[in-house]
Amino acid sequence: MKRIDSITIREKIVSFYLYSISFLGMFAVIISIFKSEMPSEVIILLLLSVFMGIVEYFPIRIGRGGVTLSLTLIYPMNWEFGIHITVVACVCVMVLTHSLRRLPMQRTLFNCSQFALSIILAEWLSNQSISFFITEMNMPVLYEELSSLLLFTVYFCLINAIFYDLLMVILPQPYPLEQWYKKNILVFLSGSFCLFYASLIYILEHRYSGEMNRINVLFFFFPLVAICIISSFFRQIRIEKERLYNLFSITTELSQGLSAGNLHQMKKSLKGFLGIQAYALWTKDEGNWVLLLKDGKVHSDRLGSSELHLNFEEISQTFVVSDWKKGMAPGDEVFEDVIRSLVYLPLKVNHELVGMFVAGKSRGASFITEDIQSLSTFANQLGSLLKTRSLISEQEKRIILEERNRLAREIHDGIAQVLAGVIFQLESAQKQHADQSGNMQQVVDKSIKKLRKSLGEVRYSIYALKPYPTQRLGLKQAIANKIQSIKQEYNLAIKYHERGRTRTLSCTKERVIFDTLQESLQNIVKHAKADEVDILLSYQREHVLLKVKDNGVGFSLFESMIKTKHEPHYGILHMNEQAEELGATLQIDSLPGKGTEITLLIPDAETREGVS
Asked: Which leading EC class covers this enzyme (predicted)?
């Protein structure tokens, strides 16, 4: 509750800060409009504005960040037309570029206001510094102007950085020192380049002509604009190449992970994909929604609800929540409150909704068009993988059930009927020749016993072909039934404990757990002479633990191992073989007179809620 209140308070402070800066900035722009005069060289102003728009729209990429070189065009605009026209022109250019990028209105207002205030304050502070310090030094005009450029650059970068840093500190999302450091490095590089470029322009202009014309504007700034455009295109091509490669890699890894049931591999593949900070994957299982996978800034104690299917069904196409708050979209209770942007991607195959992938970021409106396109492509691949996985699973189950039913039917209609008929005939012959010699009686009795044994084996085979108790009833109910039958038959005090959050295991793991329990109980009944048994089934984060402990007579493990070598498919060796096949650990602790404790530890990481 305190966490939520803290986030709410900080969000209100952020809103107040954004509106305050936007109000002050717009007020400054309005004042600049009234104080502006019609420029004599409108064409030059338009050329500089167009170049600034191009430079803003095509930032130069450095590493994973980007910088704009707009400051280079602010200098000459300020020299020629004054600070007020410069502010108005810069704001108009930024509004246009932000509109082309389809950025939110609040962000556009804040960025424009921040930019306008930075220009005005940097100009005022640089003029004050010049009047207080530099004018008294009686420096040449050229050096004085270059000093003015340096001061304006320093003040502009510093004020702009303060506005931005204040916002990032106030936001509920963390602002790491490493991110602050990288941002300031980019600001320093951008400011240094702009200062060098503007100083070069001013020196050349001062030495050769003394005034700026259209030819000079084209000559000085066309290379800068060309560099920005070419750099941006090359960077875009590189980004698209990396995006496609990452998309190919992640779909390949996901395919392997889904087919093998390795959800850890899926988590590893999705980590850092497109800067996603949280995600959740729901799949549809027999009409219910099951949370298959989640990671990042998500609540570890929230379960996927099967009541969400009505809401999920309503999302027929990609759905973006730019300024998320809890309760705005289905299933969003999984995510932590620091998340601010969500994108819902329905996983469809032939118009059938098979799943829902939801990704989140901690900044509002942070999913750009390219991110959504990549995620949509990823969603198409993921939907196909989930559908294929579902179809394969259903087909395997159907084939197994059909084969078992076929074998059971053939045995029942064939061998079982024949054996039953033979037994009936022998019993009739026994009655007819009851008064004859005892030798005949012995033969018939022996034959009947053999046939009854064969019939019992056949019936056991039929039973074995039927679904295993854990498949028919589930592990929990199968264990409960087994314990109840042992209690009733042998009057044994059995205590059963279950810990952790129950989750469905694979059929093989459930069978090994049940077989180990069943074999342990049979050994207790036959050999232990115990009257109390404690059973623990614990669902841990990385493992599932089964522990069976009795207060019986115990035994020597060494002697037992030597004895069981003659029967490798039963008893202790059989349990150990089953455990090794799963990569599990079987530990048996026993001493004569001190009871026996059997511990089975199966690796099974808790990678999703309710399913493993």
From this structure: transferase
